Amino acid sequence: MDELIPLSNESLGRMPGDVRLPRYDRTRLTPGIVHVGLGNFHRAHQAWYLHRLFDEGRDLDWAILGAGIMPGDAAQREKLRAQDWMTTLIELDPETTSAEIVGSMCGFVPVEEGHRPLIEAMADPNIRIVSLTVTEGGYYRDATGGLDTDHPDIRHDAHTPDAPRTVFGAMVAALRIRRDAGRGPFTGLSCDNLQGNGDILRRTVLGIARAVDPELAVWIEAECSFPNSMVDCIVPATGPKELALVEQHGIADRSPVTHETYRQWVIEDDFCAGRPALEHVGATFTRKVAAHEAMKLRILNAGHQLLANIGELRGHDTIAQCMADPEISGFFHKVLNDEIVPHVAPVPERTPGAYVELVSRRFSNPAIVDTPRRVAFDGSSRHPGFVLPSIRDGLAADMSIEGLALAEVLWARMCIGTRLDGTQIAPNDPNWARLQDAAQAARTDPALWAAQEWIYGDLAHESRFIEAFTRRYGDVAERGPDAVLRDYAGAA
Fold first, then answer.
1. DSSP 301
2. Dist. CA 193–CA 42, nearest whole Å
3. In 127-258, which residue ranges form alpha helices assigned H by DSSP?
């Protein structure tokens, strides 16, 4: 192999001819967005949309200024700084791969305790959007979906507003500076997989603001906007395989990203300080995001959980392998079509049934090395957000929840921490110890798992759910997951 070309501004002219390069002058970019959470998904999704918009010569004053709040974000900052904030995207088609250099990011705020550089960056009047990908579990929600005001981080931010721990406390601190200096508001844009993610972000920011300065909260509520959005693209974690792929294209990139060929971004058109014209590169702006959100979260994200828990138990390496397993695939399709699709409304361009088939094809792509472990991570946030709403709808409609109850049983079984062959499952949830305790207790009394209010909320007191879960748990304990899955998937 020829010597690899390190990714940098200087080296762009020396990149192999089959690598798609930025078609804009990166020296002309100025930041208009602070984005918190520079993981793989953001760089393959939101950053790509802006990159393609800049390719058209549009909106060069909307470049991304990256930011992070976790200690590990400092290491990511150093990786990206060494390559002038650029990322190589490897698109994975079942037949081939292609490489593209994305250059829509123009800097990364230093990561410091107390987040003073982040606050100052968000307080800059040139910043008109603060966007986030901080994961579904990163919004400090209590069992009812409201702000967990008893969480130590939230209490800290309420009492130490000038040196907050959370991104939301930093947003409040920056907005106070902007208000006091007459700089105007910014839009808060959540890009996480949460139904009503903008509404959740608004509640979180306002909850902290009310504790810090009630008059500031009134100003934020009146002046700022928090649009809901739906984001969609399968983006695996980066490991040795992904690093090898980027090297095959002749590039030395310390933090490349692989992704599928499909992307979607639906955004509520509610921006208080302007926005980039992303509709020119395929984003959809609408006043009605909820139906798009519900379809994606209920089918794709819930479908991921249907596959990942049993896939981890069976020791499959990838989601595509799960889809190639006829019993898992049968379980996946039967639950989605029988117990989820009836509660999902169509969107203008797609029916729920057609979306199931689209998702099935995407999950089956063998080029996407997406692991059950990654997909199953943080089940204590993902099951409540993606799976439980369909259980509630099924109960309300007096329809079957047998497959959904079985999905919850398989999650509980996974949280015991051993696969069906006896090998260990490493901790894979921020609340792993708590989940393991409940999973062990469920071995003698299954209802103890389903009665966890912090996960199941009102369902923890719903006798029909408890009964279905307990019955399915007993069936799995007596006959094993394989036999139960086989019978369920094969049932008419």
1. I
2. 12
3. 152-159, 167-181, 197-212, 214-223, 240-248
* Size (the chain), residues: 492
Question: CB neighbours of 6 closer than 8 A, spacing ≥ 6?
Answer: 83, 252
Q: How far is residue 355's CA from residue 335's CA, in Å, rounded to a whole number? A: 14
What single string gives the DSSP state of each residue in 86-154?
Answer: -EEEEEE-SS-EEEEEE--EEEE----TT-HHHHHHHHSTT--EEEE---GGGG-B-TTSSB-TTSHHH
Q: 80-86: long-range contacts at Cβ-Cβ below 8 A with a sequence spacing of 24 or more?
A: 80/38, 80/105, 80/108, 80/255, 81/108, 82/8, 82/254, 83/6, 83/7, 83/8, 83/253, 83/254, 83/255, 84/7, 84/8, 84/9, 84/26, 86/7, 86/8, 86/9, 86/22
Q: What is the rounded CA–CA span in Å between residue 387 and residue 407?
A: 9
Q: How confident is the model at residue 52 (pLDDT cuts 50, 70, 90)?
A: very high
Q: Over the Cα atoms of the chain, what is R_g?
A: 23
pLDDT tops 60 at residue 1: no
- The candidate with the shortest Cα–Cα distance to 373, out of 326, 327, 438, 321, is 321
What domains are defined for the chain? Answer: 5-286 (3.40.50.720), 290-490 (1.10.1040.10)
Residue with tokens 């079957």: 400
d(CA 217, CA 45): 31
pTM score, two decimals? 0.92
Give Cα 45 distance to the centre of its chain. 11
**For the segment 370-417, what is each residue's pLDDT rounded down to a tens digit?**
999 999 999 999 999 999 999 999 999 999 999 999 999 999 999 999
Structure tokens at 188: 């808060």
- Cβ contacts of residue 222 below 8 Å, gap of 6+? none
If we measure between CA atoms, which residue out of 101, 234, 99, 118 comes closest to residue 173? 118
